[in-house]
Amino acid sequence: MKALIIKIIQWFNIHIVKKHMNQEQENLDRTWHENFVQYTEMIVAHNNYKGLYYDRGNDGRVKRVVTGKSDKGQQRRQWWDNQCGKTGIPIEAGCYAKIAVALHPTKKHICQICGKALSIEYVYPTKNTLKTLYEKLNANIEPFSLTVFEIVEKYGTSPAAIENIKAAFKIENSGTTKANLGDYIFKNCQTRLSPGVMSNSPDRFDGFHSDGNCCRGMSDKGRHKDNLQRYSQDRRVYENWADGNWKMADRLMAEFAKHGLSADHIGPISLGFCHRAKFQPMTKSENSAKNNRMSFADIQTLLADEANSEQVISWHSKYLWDKLKNNVNSDIEAVKLSSLMRNNLHQILLVFSIISENGYNEFLTELLNPKYSFFDYKFKGFNSKTGEYKGVEEKELTGKNQQNNVDRYVRIAFESLENYKEKDNRKQYAWDNAEIDNSINIVLQYLAKGNKETALNQLNATFEKLAKIAVAKW
After folding, report:
1. What pTM did the predictor assign?
2. Residue at a domain's end among 168, 194, 220
3. What's the rounded Cα separation, in Å, for the pair 199 and 100?
4. Cα(252)–Cα(408) distance, rounded to whole angstroms?
5. How far apart are CA 26 and CA 20, in angstroms?
6. How far is Cα 217 from Cα 207, in angstroms, rounded to an integer?
7. How many whole angstroms separate alpha carbon 418 and alpha carbon 402?
8. Fewest Cβ atoms closer than 10 Å to its Cβ: which of 26, 118, 165, 249?
9. Could you tell me if 185 and 167 are in contact, meaning their C-beta atoms sit under 8 angstroms apart?
């Protein structure tokens, strides 16, 4: 076992670092569609958003996105909090997604790329459900082209057709008819439905991503067709340089998917937590609404797992987690900690990008975990209601496919750092602190001398300094 891991790391360091640098990504035209321009102007002028801050760029267009850590971002968050208070929505994980839907005046969002109008509600069949509808009805329905209401109206032409639609949504003995079938599916079959646009509140002005799901498969690398086909291999683990047995966690996520469930990370990867084989089952809509914000209950679960000697947080983010994890006493404070940890991870990745820019990718690769690609796992006694399992079988693998996965993961890891080399992103996430700058320079000096161990110690000291800056905002 030990010899295999050493061999993997040697092969990994020699071949992969150079290979990923030659990979090129296709660029998507980000020109605003005229329909999206008109939609944005309508939204910012609507009385439902009165008092919500926005600015305009030099081109006169609305700046829809405001970073949460900025003063303007905090101003926006307070506005959303106030709206939640007015409507009785508790300030907790998923609250902003709920209020974004409640406030939207038309419930139709325009895609920035293609200009198509799509519902913000869960009314479109998922990809797998569309396949089943094709098999049952011989109806080749394009994704996000028809809502469930329109499908029932168009294809429910006979009692047999109605039964086929019910079978596609796995509805049994509901007593539904054509008149109420659409409403029944909308209310009871959320795991087989998708919205036309994903929530991104409060960062975006209206609380939704600019791109509709019609185009998001092209615009979002993480949702590109090739990556969606590998959903049981979660690319976010390397995008965020996360610790944890990602292969085992991926296999457990696939187990959730088989049961029509969405696997919720109790400690989100995007906040610096490990990708580990422990999730709580949710519907897709619940998980989307929660986004990457923790609840007070999540914090309590993470603390309990730590008390049982489980690693829940990645090494680079542990400093901030350890300083604040015992200070959370409510859902509001849990959301606040989520925001601080997300920004902290952005800064950590920015540090990695600086190290990469200076030519020390080989050092960075040693911080990744490619060895898990060479194993597979099966779960015994999986309980879809709790997400728990009685046991797990481990199988060691060797082959070209495993090495290809290693290749893919390291490429994704370094691609994620490229984003932080852009001027706007660097300005957005950078610290204004000479001590941090000096600490990073010391890391680079040690690396220049070939002293990797001391460089790693200094890197840890840098992340501890970043954590102290974040704590001051608590």
Report:
1. 0.64
2. 194
3. 8
4. 20
5. 15
6. 19
7. 25
8. 26
9. no
Tell me what pLDDT residue 371 has.
86
Q: Are both 270 and 370 inside the same structural domain?
A: yes
Q: Do 299 and 368 fall within a single domain?
A: yes
Q: Does residue 420 contact residue 350 with C-beta atoms inside 8 Å? A: yes
Residue 150: predicted pLDDT: 96
Tokens of 46: 């609507």
Scanning the structure block, which residue is given the tokens 């914090």?
Answer: 299
Query: Amino acid identity of 285?
Result: S
CA distances from residue 294 to 84, 220, 377 in whole angstroms, order as listed: 17, 23, 28
Domain count, the chain: 3
C-alpha 134 chain-centroid distance: 30
pLDDT single digits (tens) 208-258:
999 999 887 665 544 444 443 444 456 788 889 999 999 999 999 888 888
Which structural domain range is residue 319 located in? 2-23+210-471
Kindly tell me if the per-residue pLDDT of 74 is higher than 70: yes
Residue 268 and residue 276 in contact, taking contact as beta carbons nearer than 8 Å: no
Q: Which residue do the tokens 């481990």 mark?
A: 394
Asked if 353 contacts 421 with a C-beta cutoff of 8 angstroms, the reply is yes
CB atoms within 10 A of CB 419: 16
Identify whether 103 is part of a domain.
Answer: yes
Q: Which residue, chain included where needed, has tokens 């609305």? A: 62
For residue 284, pLDDT beyond 80 = no
Of 165, 194, 223, which residue sits at a domain end? 194
pLDDT of residue 29: 46
SS3 for 125?
strand
Residue 117 resides in a domain: no
Interval 66-82 mean pLDDT? 82
What tokens does 95 get? 């609250």
